[in-house]
Write a structure and sequence with these properties.
Blueprint lengths: L7 E7 L3 H12 L3 E7 L3 H9 L5 E3 L2 H5 L4 E4 L3 H14 L5 E4 L5 H9 L10 H9 L6 E8 L19 E5 L6 H13 L3 E4 L2 H25 L10 H7 L6 H10 L1 H23 L3 H16 L4
Parallel strand pairs: 1-2, 1-4, 2-3, 4-5, 5-6, 7-8
Antiparallel strand pairs: 6-7
Length: about 300
């Protein structure tokens, strides 16, 4: 049977770690790209990604790789994404698609929009190329966050099925053309994701509660457990603290980038913790059961 036509001739992935490597593997497994190029600073990591068939070719020269790209995905830590987006845009062909996989969105999208020149009402490909030739942004960027992370790192942790049934949040700016949102949503959907669209600010507010604050709580539990107690940890402790094994440098950038929303989320968690503490100090079993029941019902509502 004839293989289906690739959706994109050349896809460039900047940062071929666990997420970037998984994107490459998924593209290749689903025959969605004719060629996948990985760009990074570590020759060893790129060689590993190529050995694992997450990419077809490796490059350390961003400009050379982007020159032939139809789509570029920036899958580095959030602290470097904005700068890389600017670097990609400077050498991109007019109208090239561009997205990222950052865990925070408001600052990244705002920085991109600051550099975008106001465009006319026409949103055809030809008009984008004409606009680009007059200056301003060359690429068509739509921010995204595949909510499919892991505490594991590097291309060796990549999985072609990582995005299957998982959520990816696409976060356009107000000025982002609907056609661009549709194309980037289609990309993430093609990898297996269930795609949601929301504003960058709403994304950061929600993810502070569902991802960023839980990481802090996991880290706090791990750090508060004395060494002499570690031999007696079981499934509950290990499940609770698993994500605390994530890269501290990467997580520091995420938490600082979304600090106000994370602080509000932690305050909300602290409020519930305070109620449980009060019930314990008062030996109020009825109140304690009520609080634990509410938590169980909220967790059970999500399913397995």
């Amino acid at each position: 049977m004839k293989a289906p036509k690739a959706h994109w001739s050349t896809v460039v992935i900047v940062g071929v770690g666990m997420i970037g490597g998984s994107i490459g593997l998924a593209l290749k497994a689903r025959k969605l790209a004719g060629r996948v190029i990985g760009v990074g600073r570590s020759a060893a990591s790129l060689a590993e990604a190529k050995r694992l068939h997450a990419i077809d070719d490796a490059a350390t020269d961003l400009a050379a790789a982007v020159a032939t790209a139809d789509l570029v995905v920036v899958a580095t830590g959030v602290g470097s994404i904005s700068g890389i987006l600017d670097d990609v845009d400077a050498v991109a062909r007019p109208g090239m698609l561009l997205t990222d996989a950052g865990s925070t969105k408001a600052r990244i999208v705002a920085a991109w929009e600051k550099g975008r020149r106001s465009r006319g009402p026409s949103k055809t490909e030809a008009s984008r190329k004409t606009d680009a030739s007059k200056g301003g942004r060359h690429a068509r960027f739509v921010g995204a966050h595949p909510v499919a992370g892991s505490h594991r790192r590097g291309p060796a942790a990549a999985d072609p099925n990582l995005f299957n049934g998982r959520v990816t949040i696409v976060t356009p700016a107000t000025a982002t053309p609907a056609a661009d949102v549709e194309e980037i949503s289609g990309f993430w959907s093609a990898l297996g994701s269930t795609v949601y669209t929301m504003t960058p600010r709403d994304h950061d507010r929600i993810l502070a509660m569902t991802s960023h604050a839980p990481h802090v709580v996991a880290a706090a539990v791990a750090a508060a457990t004395p060494a002499e107690a570690r031999p007696f940890t079981a499934g509950g402790w290990r499940d609770t603290t698993r994500i605390a094994a994530g890269d501290p440098e990467l997580w520091a950038d995420i938490l600082l980038d979304n600090a106000p929303a994370v602080a509000r989320a932690l305050s909300r968690i602290a409020g519930v913790t305070e109620k449980i503490l009060d019930a314990l100090e008062a030996s109020d079993r009825r109140r304690l059961v009520s609080l634990l029941t509410r938590a169980k019902e909220d967790r059970d509502a999500l399913g397995s």
